[in-house]
TrEMBL record:
Pfam families: V-set
The name this protein goes by in its record: Ig-like domain-containing protein
Xref: InterPro entries: Ig-like_dom, Ig-like_dom_sf, Ig-like_fold, Ig_sub, Ig_sub2, Ig_V-set, Zig-8
Origin species: Tetragonisca angustula
Gene3D superfamilies according to UniProt: Immunoglobulins (2.60.40.10)
Biological process terms in GO annotation: synapse organization
């Protein structure tokens, strides 16, 4: 199975980074966040207080999946799956968390979309049926 090493997800949509390790033997799989060199896990033990991060490893499986619940744009970056061999074996995974798309329109143009939008309680913003955020300019 070929697993993607470039993963894009939307803000708030759970991200999965899949690492497969064949013939692990007595070695251990770890996940590390490269931007700050923070070791997130060793085996299934987590070394972060951020509860959004979790390792999924079914018994007798070759899969070591890093799950990031409710990712934010700040979670974008490179994550490393590494095996405790000497020398270390590792693979880098790139996570790209994309935010909402905002479209600024004049009030006149925004009125044309009124039939297809929902006005929020403050009246300043509407959302159309395909999920774009429309902000009125005053």
């Amino acid at each position: 199975m070929n697993v993607p090493r470039n993963v894009t997800t939307a803000v708030g949509q759970t991200a999965f980074l899949h690492c497969r390790v064949h013939q692990l033997g007595d070695k251990e799989v770890s996940w590390m966040r490269k931007r700050d060199m923070h070791i997130l896990s060793a085996g299934i033990l987590m070394y972060t207080s951020d509860l959004r991060f979790q390792v999924i490893h079914p018994d007798k499986s070759e899969n070591w999946t890093l799950q990031i619940k409710s990712p934010q744009e700040r979670d974008s970056g490179v994550y490393e799956c590494q095996v405790s061999t000497e020398p270390k074996m590792s693979l880098n995974y790139s996570l790209n968390v994309v935010g909402e798309i905002t479209i600024n329109l004049s009030r006149e143009l925004s009125q044309r979309y009124q039939d297809h939008t929902r006005i929020y309680t403050d009246g300043s913003e509407t959302q159309n049926s395909i999920g774009y955020s429309i902000v009125f300019e005053h």
